[in-house]
Amino acid sequence: MFSPAAGAIRQKILGRMFRVSVEPPSGPAELIEHKAEDLDPDTLSGIDEAAFYDLKEHEACYDILQSTRFDFLLLSFTQELATTATTVDINIQLVINALPPSSHATQKFIYRLNSMKLLLDYVQATQCIHPALTAQRSALITALTVDIDDLAQNAVKQWAICTTGGKKKEGLQVVHPEVRRDFIYSLPLALSIMVLTAIIHSAMGVSRDSCNFILASLKGILLLAANMQGAQAQRFIQQHLSHAPDTLATTLHFLNLPPPFQLYIVCPQCSTLYRELDHAQLPEACTSRILDGPVCGKQLFHNSFRGGKVRRTPVRRYSHQMFETWLSEVLLRPGVEDMIESSAPSPSTLLTDVWHGTYWKDFPGSGEDNFFDNPKDELRLCMLLYHDFFNPLHNKTAGKLRSIGCFYMVCLNLPPELRYDTSLAYLASIVPGPSEPSMEAVQSFIRPIADEMTRLYNPGIWVS
Questions:
Q1: CA distance 153 to 79
Q2: One Pfam annotation, family name (predicted)?
């Protein structure tokens, strides 16, 4: 194998073999590895030359999948899971059906599963003749098949923990704080480039395309400086830069900076939302109908070309951050939970804060006279929803007219001086442009937020 990902694949397969006490012969595997390292794509036949680059791309995708660890403790189950006597016969669809579809952990689980299945289809469709490429293709297929089976087995183990280990509180959905993984790459030079680019983008507001150019420029300058020093410096720089990504999106992913979003595909005409689980299960055109009118029929996808392949890409996307994800992370900050618990409605003749209003004293609860008259071990939150639209290209007299929007909330339980702090605000969703939607379309965008708040109001969630 000719890449670090291939080595990881080989170690994974051998590890599975050792667990079942099967000792693989070392001779042939070593011979195939040497052949793969010596391959020159220019000397290969047409089908093998294409397979050489395709397998290299597939290995890079597999490397990215392996670099992100899925925490199965985040999964919660809403129904019984029918399991067989052996874990080998687990039906992955039964696992998905037992998970709550609105949970962010469920979305991450399904996205990871679909990514592995799609990559497996690509690898299986790769045709090659050379023995080294054939062995490499077989290793990728085996590794992906084992990983897909692992997803089902680990999900079943988590189901057993949830049902027998006391992981639920009075039937409430259990929410675990998002586990922040370590940096994928620890080489100081590559890490420095990634951190610098992330700061330039996040703190200075530099665009993605410009950051991609900065990344390429930094790597080019370092390579040029190494070439002026000698062979040893060249090898050192090349080794470190091989771990540095080429795009800003990959950089932010490696640093674990982007917040987790629940994605929806948006009809570009009527703004109907379709949850983005599996593109193969979604219609090509919008099936929405307003009253007795005709079906919308607007195309939801367009074809894009990348890496010599045609990919099905949504025309518009709507991003929604789950409230439970934001809440579990905010409560981890020192002092935040104490500040929330210290606030309570207190009617007063001098009205200086929202909590002084008489409305909160009689706010209806689920079977209670006052929603905010809560037990000591519960938090009753009051969230204020805003929405606004803005021109991302800035407001210029002769500039382009573009408009994107956002829904965000502030927690009224926090003290007034911290209530509107952006670090404590909940960014609920991003409304795609390029123009401001109609009032009817705004209702469509706010529906996922309203549905989530209804579920949180009754019965609520349990944050571990």
A1: 17
A2: Transposase_21
